[in-house]
Amino acid sequence: MKTINIKPLSDHLTIALQQKIDLKTKPIGALGQLESIALQLGRIQNTLSPSLQKPYIIVFTGDHGITEEKVSPYPQEVTYQMVFNFLQEGAAINVFSKQNGIGLKVVDAGVNFNFDDHENLIKAKMGFGTKNFANSPAMEIEVCEKAIEKGAHCISKIIDVGSNVIGFGEMGIGNTSSASVLMSVLTGIPIEDCVGAGTGLDDVGVLHKKEVLKKAINSHSIPKDPIAVLALFGGFEIAMMVGAFLKAAEKQVTIMVDGFIVTSALLVASKINKNVLDYCVFTHTSHEKGHQKMLAYLKANPLLNIGMRLGEGTGGAVAYPIIKSASLFLNEMASFESAGVSNI
Is residue 153 part of a domain? Predict the structure, then answer.
């Protein structure tokens, strides 16, 4: 895998940015998380006047061999059917992206279907779904590394058109199973605390899912290298998101982090280079069971908690106006001095 060089955020503008925030016509801290986001945006862009340009969401899609173990109530073909839905602009992510002026691209990372060309589809297929990690590694390490590089290439295309704020989404029946195992193995949190209902399992289904995933973990010799762990249990779409996270941070792009599966990809990326976290805005807390624990592990402070658990990048699309508000107040709100308002 090519070396990714992610710079830690510079502190040289931090004092000036904080002073600019504090001198706006408001009590100190009165805008809550908007103030911390404004500070983060300024540090990411290395300017006192950060701006958000050409926002995008990229939905990475792929199928998972673990679905053979009946860990999802939906059949695998729902993945390619939902890709069609994205391309026909009928999904929730299409609605919210259009509402907020966000560009949208869909990446075929490894769906078990051959798609025709489409202007909003990026063909980057690594295979027709991963192998069943209950029986074998999901993918070879070389394939995993190639998927990471492809993810980096996909986001580079978006950055090259001038986007400096990008969110990731995902679609892949079975991918909450991959995310749960990656979370457990990389954080040390018991798998029982990482597994949720996914796309709608009942209590019996969740219990079965826990048993399958625990058995899968115990059937493998767990490596220490995060890329090897990703190859063992991940999905093609998760691996590509890992590469996209790393490349976006290297290019000093603000990253909107969605829900459980996207955060599991970030978890892997952070084990490769911890500096990636500095460039991330955590948009919401998913209703999926393990997400709160994973956010706590990453010391994240998400913007929203409204019971969402859809994926697709919908959390990023819904939260984007909040992030935009942070940049706008920093750039357009009057200061006490410019407004002629007495300060304390």
Answer: yes
Q: What is the largest CA-CA distance in the chain?
A: 70
Residue 120 tokens read as 């909003």
* pTM for the predicted model, two decimal places: 0.96
Residue 266 CA to residue 344 CA, distance in Å, equals 42
- Which two structure tokens, joined as six digits, stand for 31? 């805008």
Which position has the token pair 């658990």? Answer: 309
**Type of residue numbered 4:** I
Q: Which domain holds residue 265?
A: 56-322
How far lies 34's CA from each of 284, 295, 300, 304, 334, in Å?
14, 19, 15, 12, 16
Active-site entry in 170, 192, 312, 332: 312
- Is residue 140, in this structure, part of any structural domain at all? yes
Q: What is the CATH number of the domain that holds 158?
A: 3.40.50.10210
User: Which letter does DSSP use for residue 171 in this model?
Assistant: E
Question: What local confidence, expressed as pLDDT, does residue 338 receive?
Answer: 77
Chain centroid, CA 199 distance in Å: 18
Helix (H, G, I), strand (E, B) or coil at 92: helix
| Tokens read off for 274 | 């911890």
Low-confidence spans in the chain with pLDDT less than 50? none
| Residues 6+ positions from 286 with CB-CB distance below 8 Å | 259, 260, 263, 308, 309, 315
* The 280-282 sheet, strands edge to edge: 121-123, 103-110, 56-62, 165-171, 254-257, 280-282
Burial string for 16-26 (b: 16+ CB within 10 Å, else e) reads ebeebbebbeb
- If DSSP codes are grouped into helix, strand and coil, which group holds residue 106? strand
- Using only C-alpha atoms, the chain has a radius of gyration, in whole angstroms, of 20
Give me the pLDDT at residue 287, please.
86
Backbone angles phi, psi at 334, to 5 degrees: -70, 150
For 60, the enclosing helix (H) or strand (E) is: strand 56-62
Do 241 and 257 fall into the same domain?
A: yes
Q: Does the annotation mark 312 as catalytic? A: yes
What span, in angstroms and rounded, lies between the C-alpha atoms of 122 and 168? 14
